[in-house]
Specification:
Low-confidence stretches: none
Helix content: 25-40%
Number of strands: 19
CATH topology of the largest domain: Aminopeptidase
Strand content: 15-25%
Oligomer: single chain
Number of domains: 2
Number of helices: 13
CATH superfamily of the largest domain: Zn peptidases
CATH architecture of the largest domain: 3-Layer(aba) Sandwich
Shape: elongated
Radius of gyration: 23 Å
Structural class: alpha/beta
Largest sheet: 6 strands, mixed
């Protein structure tokens, strides 16, 4: 069967199930869960895979689910990814009233598009020359570090990012390339952004350690850890003019514990921050400056500090050949999108880590209003956000895995990894 007929059948199946796909996206949106806690989302995905007759494995990196449609030949494997986790945005109208979690990053759209692609490709099982993996992955948002430390201490995870952990435990070893979509904030229009970059980061938790004393009766006997933290913030601010524009350095600390009682000089204050940047060298340089600022502020106040650095994410590099396959199929939609190139993400993502060892793409798509991670973020057009990306990814898979999987194998052969898996894990 030729590619055009396969694509017609896949898109027909997606259109026939459009209401179901939209319902999936809405269900995920209405039940947001934080990273490594996506148990209800994982259960919903398993039900959908079972209904399609797609065998799967679950509990991968705690909550991950991986289903596979086998081809008539297994010459290459393409993964379609969807992230399950939410962010904390308690004032969002669809936030969970207990946890404050909300899908203010549009991951519900990713799950809908991934399962929509699975619905479409289920209509042509056994017709391709390769395998398709539908992979629901946990914990893209690098948050709740204390909770993840506990999971690590129990041995449930080693790395805090979901894709990082899945790389570590070998769940990407049988995959040759991967694709997923992401919401483009403030973009209700029919738009696809390709080949954008993203910045990496290192995460820090800092304990400022002072000495408690009566805040009214004997403050001179104390060492104020909060003053040390505030001084550290000012010292970090004083470094900003040394950050080069092209390095895209971002440092954004928050105080998660500001003291024990108002009438006690704070003896323990905790800060969390990211140090983001466009390259690993720039991140390393800025991270050292931030550490120096913190240590210097503590010296000035007479406090001590404990700085913990956590493995963050690497910068995002997308495969241009894989992007071209996606673009070609996006332009085949009945209402083709406007294509924009090199629109960089302002944040960080762990698909950047995956992109260092295999070809990946993460096009950002329109159909959304409001800034990402903000109270005004919402789905404006569910067909743009859920249905069109499902069709585009499914048709892209057909191109990659038809005719002896020639396009997939060409992309695989031409790809030059920035790191091997072993180098990545050591790094």
């Amino acid at each position: 069967m030729n590619r055009a007929e396969l694509k017609r059948r896949v898109c027909e199946a997606i259109d026939k199930n459009a209401d179901r796909i939209i319902e999936i996206g809405d269900k995920v949106q209405n039940k947001p869960e934080m990273g490594y806690r996506e148990f209800e989302t994982s259960a919903l995905i398993k039900v959908q895979l079972e209904e399609m007759g797609i065998p799967y494995r679950d509990k991968l990196a705690v909550t991950g689910v991986k289903g596979t449609i086998k081809g008539k030949r297994s010459l290459a494997t393409v993964a379609v990814l969807g992230e399950m986790d939410a962010v904390t945005c308690a004032t969002h109208p669809l936030a969970d009233p207990v946890s404050g979690a909300s899908h203010a990053c549009g991951h519900n759209g990713q799950i809908a598009a991934m399962l929509g692609a699975a619905i479409g490709l289920s209509a042509i099982k056994g017709e391709l020359d390769g395998d398709v993996c539908f992979f629901a992955v946990p914990a893209e948002e690098f948050v709740e570090i204390g909770y993840r430390e506990k999971l690590s201490e129990r041995g449930d995870i080693k790395f805090f990012g979901g894709k990082q952990e899945l790389i570590r435990i070998g769940e990407f070893d049988d995959i040759d390339m991967a694709m997923m979509v992401h919401a483009q904030g403030n973009c209700p229009e029919n738009t696809v952004c390709l080949d954008g970059g993203g910045i990496g980061f290192v995460a820090k938790t800092v304990n400022f350690i002072g000495k408690a004393a009566h805040a009214g009766g004997a403050p001179h006997e104390g060492i104020n850890a909060l003053n040390a933290a505030m001084a550290a913030m000012m010292c970090i601010h004083a470094q900003r003019e040394t950050f080069r524009d092209e390095d895209k350095i971002r440092v954004h600390p928050i105080i998660t514990n500001g003291g024990e009682l108002v009438n006690v000089v704070p003896s323990l204050v905790t800060m969390e921050t990211y140090v983001r940047g466009a390259t690993s060298d720039a991140i390393k340089d800025a991270s050292a400056k931030v550490d120096r600022a913190i240590e210097g502020a503590c010296f000035a106040i007479g406090a001590k500090c404990e700085i913990k650095n956590y493995k963050g994410y690497l910068p995002l590099v997308q495969d241009k050949e894989l992007s071209r396959v996606y673009e070609r199929n996006a332009l085949m939609l009945p209402e083709p999108p406007t294509v924009r190139r090199d629109v960089d993400m302002t944040g960080s993502t762990d698909i950047g880590d995956l992109g260092h060892i295999m070809p990946i793409i993460q096009p950002t798509v329109g159909g959304f209003v409001g800034n990402l991670h903000a109270v005004e973020f919402a789905v404006a057009d569910k067909r743009r956000a859920y249905i069109d990306p499902a069709k585009t990814m499914a048709m892209a898979v057909i191109d990659l895995l038809s005719d002896g999987a020639t396009e997939a194998l060409a992309i695989k052969d031409s790809f030059k990894p920035l790191m091997t898996k072993e180098e990545y894990l050591n790094f």
